[in-house]
Design brief:
The structure holds two protein chains of two kinds. Chain A has 15 helices and 13 strands. Chain A is an alpha/beta fold. Chain A has three domains: 39 residues, no CATH class; 193 residues, 3-Layer(aba) Sandwich (Rossmann fold); 80 residues. In chain A, strand 8, helix 9 and strand 9 form a beta-alpha-beta unit. Chain A is flat, with a radius of gyration of 40 Å. Chain B is globular, with a radius of gyration of 28 Å. Chain B is α/β, with parallel strands linked by helices. In chain B, strand 8 and strand 9 form a beta hairpin. Chain B contains 23 helices and nine strands. The chains are: A alpha/beta, B alpha/beta. At the A-B interface, strand 1, helix 1, strand 3, strand 4 and strand 5 of A face helix 2, strand 1, helix 3, helix 4 and helix 8 of B. Strand 1 of chain A pairs parallel with strand 1 of chain B.
């Protein structure tokens, strides 16, 4: 007899272990491919996983195989149409493939690319491998300052909106049943008896007295019933709430960018990439991430993403205006107790010297103490990089001003970016896992 | 009025008693009912002998899982299975490839996996094909009987999975992975192709020695001592003698590479030897399947074809069901011709099924040609018995050699193409005509001989007193040497297992000349 077994409810993902081992093995190659993909893709889908193709070098399984190119062999093939024995057919010239489809592996040094798709999670995991925002755990997860009401049973007092109808009614029914015990049944019985007596015409005296008795008793019972209220204050229950502390899981990211005439398409594109990466990273760390775009020339304003990246504006450069705008927005909408603030500033480094002093002051006094992390990237052209290096100059105006802050504040970081390929390494460097000794 | 009622009743009772099912949806009762009907035909009509069946319904995801663990319900974990999973999944998700309708495992009880997506008609086909066709073949074919142990195999893989997981825990993922990678590289060369005689008992050896001595004493002729022997230089003589002795001691040459390494490697830890043992046991278990692909599929296809037709003849399935089954049957046994873009070699289902049907015809209605070519079975009338004998006693190569009829050669229009690497043309050696039948048949049979299809690589020497180099040798037949691109990688893997240098030399089988040589030693010198 056959056993029929339904295996469908069995645990899934039986080959998860195999898949993990495979990913681990090809991690290096995948990482390289992912880095490449991020650089090539559009911003809007940079974080969306998808197909990644890697060379199959590290994942080949060599086996002894007979070489198809050497020796003499006989093949038996179906479908003869016109051949007779003794016919000869010229082999196709080498390189054009001999019909067995192996030319695909011959080109490209015999290494087929192995294409497979990564889920968004896997993609980002690899992208952010080893990355961590500085002191993230310490300041945003441990120092909880936000609390949230959570349901915690029932209580006898509270406000009307919190009335728990179900509990209240349950108590009410119970109480009414208890106080009115047997009342309803007795009432029915008496009423039936009264009706029966009333229908008869020939009532004798004892029956008449009985009828009167019944009526008084009915009246009595009804009065008792009326005295038991439908809802008594002792029935009433309210939902009880308790305030419990929860880690702040919200982050706001301020993107500050200089859009003055000195910032060209190239510079903006680089800045964009940096913002995308930061955004992706924050999205993984927090339940909710909001982005505020602040662009500035000599005046600063909050704008939409579209305008931020593609809008045109020209004018001078005054960085402190952007910092002030940002501070105002934070004060109005993103209280430090609820929101983790991250600031990313991109600029070509030009500023008035007097304004730079003002910026440093603002950062030092109000901004840096209030935010989790402040990243400044200075976008240069290749030519500028070499010119600065020749002059023995570490950076441009703003950079020199910020230099002093770097040593004082651990949550402040600055970097130079010159080409698209620099973005990701710079990002990694900025957020690379720090060797924090003696600290968890 | 009453007559009408009667007609109605008859119709509905026909409906009920006749068909096993009449919708595409399946449920467990229907499958069980259909299974019983199929079993009746398989056992009582065809007279098959099968392991007890265990039919398991699985989802497509589980089917993918089963694919990449080589079809086994339990298998140890290794990244290469993950790689297969990723590749298969991508193909499936993109719709390049469908999944198999079933997978069947050579075990006792015989486990068949059926997909939940199958319609009831397909489940019928699958049960007939796998649970009876393949099952009968597994139980009765001599290769499976001799080489595999259906009762123990699931337990063994269970053990292997657990053992490898334990090793990973104790010795680290990396070490286990390296060992498995290396062992997998020579897996195909790690089977015993010929059954070894069982070990003689101690007493037996003593008795034989004594017999041999007595025989020598009896036949001693002093005269022979005076016959002059061919002169040999003393040194080479001694060298030769030592080599012979060593080889005898180590039982060289050895065809089972992993067996030799497991027993003789100077560097392996005990757990590594056990891991190697697991790999070569796995290879050994699958060895018969490689040799009987054509017959196994032919047998299963023939069985399902017979059974579903019989079900229809008995009025148990409807015409629609039969048509649906035949539709997928025809897809399975389709053989594209060589110039068709879909062509990828001879379809084992097509040729296997055609040969089984042909044998049935030869037994029942032979023509003159059949009588000439197959005098022993032509017209014997007992196709059931004949086929069962064939299923039990042949493998692909001998089966084709024995039973491929000229009729099928004509039907498939088979022809032989001879391809010599030295020439810039190929030659048609034989076609489907009187002069060509035997050559076509012999060459087709040879193409199913896996000792010809896989390189013949053996361990010939190991110098335990010198540098301990492990010497491998490929016997190159017809100039077909191993693909050099993988060779260096593989001998590096072997070096890991052996601990000392490894070399592989290709020796021509015609004139013993050396064709190529690769070694790990030289590579080290260069670097």
């Amino acid at each position: 007899m056959a056993h029929l077994i339904d295996r469908r409810p069995n645990p899934r993902e039986k080959s998860l272990g195999n898949r993990q081992r495979f990913l681990r093995r090809s991690r290096e190659e995948i990482k390289r491919a992912v880095d490449k993909a991020v650089n090539e893709r559009n911003i809007s889908d940079a974080g969306n996983g998808g197909s990644i193709s890697i060379p199959s070098r590290g994942i080949t399984e060599p086996r002894f195989r007979l070489s198809p190119k050497h020796g003499n062999r006989q093949r038996v093939t179906p479908g003869n149409k016109e051949f007779v024995s003794g016919d000869t057919i010229d082999k196709p010239p080498s390189g054009s493939g001999d019909g067995s489809g192996k030319d695909a592996s011959d080109s490209g040094e015999g290494e087929d690319d192995f294409v497979f798709s990564l889920s968004r999670g896997e993609f980002l995991d690899i992208l952010f491998d080893d990355l961590e925002l500085p002191d993230l755990i310490k300041s945003s997860l441990k120092d909880t300052t936000v609390s949230e009401p959570r349901r915690a049973g029932y209580s006898n007092d509270g406000t009307t909106p919190n009335l728990n109808v179900l509990r209240t009614m349950r108590n009410s029914i119970g109480r009414r049943l208890a106080l009115n015990k047997g009342g309803a049944a007795r009432l029915k019985e008496l009423e039936a008896e009264a009706d029966e007596l009333c229908e008869r015409d020939d009532l004798d005296i004892s029956q008449r007295t009985r009828l009167a008795q019944i009526y008084t008793e009915i009246e009595d019972l009804k009065r008792r019933g009326r005295r038991v209220p439908f809802i008594d204050p002792i029935d009433i229950r309210y939902n009880r709430f308790e305030r419990r502390p929860v880690p702040a899981t919200k982050a706001v990211m301020f993107c500050l960018m200089d859009v003055s005439a000195s910032m060209g398409e190239h510079e903006k594109d680089l800045a964009k990439r940096f913002f995308v990466l930061l955004h992706l990273f924050l999205q993984r760390q927090y339940e909710r991430v909001e982005i505020v775009f602040v662009r500035h020339t000599h005046v600063a304003q909050e704008v939409s993403e579209e305008e931020f990246f593609y809008g045109r504006e020209s004018g001078g450069t005054m960085v402190s205006a952007a910092l002030e705008t940002m501070l105002n927005i934070q004060k109005d909408r993103y209280a430090t107790s609820d929101w983790n603030a991250y600031v990313a500033q991109a600029s070509d480094g030009d500023n008035f010297s007097s304004d730079t002093v003002r910026c440093v002051g603002l950062l030092e006094d109000t901004i840096l103490p209030a935010c989790q992390f402040y990243a400044y990237i200075e976008i240069l052209t290749e030519a500028e990089v070499s010119r600065l290096a020749l002059a023995g100059n570490p950076g441009k105006e703003l950079w020199r001003g910020y230099d002093a802050l770097k040593t004082k504040w651990a949550n402040f970081s600055t970097k130079h970016v010159a080409s698209r390929a620099d973005i990701y390494p710079v990002f990694r460097e900025l957020f690379a896992r720090r060797q924090r000794e003696g600290q968890l | 009025m009453s007559q009408e009622l009667l007609a109605d009743k008859k119709l509905s009772s026909d409906d009920r008693s006749g068909l096993l099912f009449d919708t595409a949806d399946w449920d467990f009762q229907t499958i069980q009912r259909t299974y019983d009907a199929i079993e009746d035909i398989a056992l009582n009509d065809l007279g098959l002998s099968v392991y007890p069946n265990q039919v398991e319904i699985i989802s497509s995801e589980q089917m993918l899982d089963a694919y990449c663990s080589v079809g086994m319900p339990v298998m140890y974990t290794h990244w290469s299975f993950g790689k297969r999973f990723v590749a298969e999944e991508a193909m499936y998700r993109k719709g390049y490839r469908g999944l198999a309708y079933e997978i069947v495992i050579n075990s006792n009880p015989c486990i068949s996996y059926c997909m939940e997506e199958n319609t009831m008609a397909m489940q019928t086909l699958v049960v007939a094909h796998a649970a009876f066709g393949h099952n009968h073949f597994f139980k009765n074919n001599y290769l499976f009987q001799q080489w595999t142990c259906a009762e123990a195999i699931l337990d063994y893989f269970e053990f292997a999975k657990r053992y490898i997981a334990e090793c990973e825990e104790r010795h680290g993922l990396r070490a286990v992975e390296d060992t498995l990678d290396a062992a997998h590289a020579v897996m195909d060369q790690s089977v015993f192709r010929y059954r070894r005689p069982s070990k003689l008992k101690v007493g037996e050896i003593e008795r034989r020695k004594k017999e041999r001595r007595q025989h020598e004493e009896r036949t001693f002729q002093d005269l022979w001592r005076t016959v002059p022997q061919a002169k040999q230089s003393k040194e080479t003589d001694e060298d030769q003698k030592e080599l012979e002795e060593r080889k005898a001691q180590l039982k060289l040459p050895e065809e089972n590479l992993l067996y030799f390494i497991e027993k003789q490697s100077p560097v392996l830890e005990p757990w590594q030897r056990e891991v190697i043992r697991i790999v070569r046991s796995t290879a050994q278990y699958f060895y018969p399947q490689k040799q009987t692909k054509l017959m196994n599929e032919g047998c299963a296809t023939f069985v399902h074809y017979y059974i579903v037709n019989e079900l229809y003849d008995r009025g148990l399935i409807s015409e629609g069901t039969l048509l649906e089954i035949l539709h997928s049957h025809c897809n399975v046994v389709f053989q594209p011709e060589f110039d068709d873009p879909r062509y990828s070699g001879i379809n084992p289902y097509a040729l296997g099924f055609a040969m089984m049907q042909d044998i049935k015809k030869i037994c029942e209605q032979p023509d003159a040609e059949d009588r000439e070519w197959f005098p022993d079975i032509a017209g014997n009338g007992d196709w059931r018995g004949t086929l069962k004998t064939i299923w039990a006693n042949y493998r692909d190569e001998s089966f084709v050699n024995q039973y491929l009829s000229p009729r099928l050669i004509r039907q498939f229009k088979l022809f032989v193409v001879s391809d010599k690497s030295a020439d810039n043309f190929v030659r048609i050696d034989a076609i489907h005509d009187e002069a060509g039948y035997r050559k076509v048949r012999a060459d087709l049979a040879a193409s199913y001989d896996i000792t010809l299809g896989e390189p013949d690589i053996q361990i010939t020497d190991v110098d335990f007193r010198g540098n301990r180099e492990l010497v491998l040798r490929q016997t190159v037949r017809e100039g077909v040497q191993v693909d050099q691109s993988d060779c260096t990688e593989i001998i590096k893997h072997l070096r890991y297992l052996w601990g000392y240098d490894v070399s592989l030399e290709g020796i021509s089988s015609e004139d013993d000349s050396s064709i190529f040589k690769v070694t790990t030693g030289e590579a080290d010198d260069k670097s």
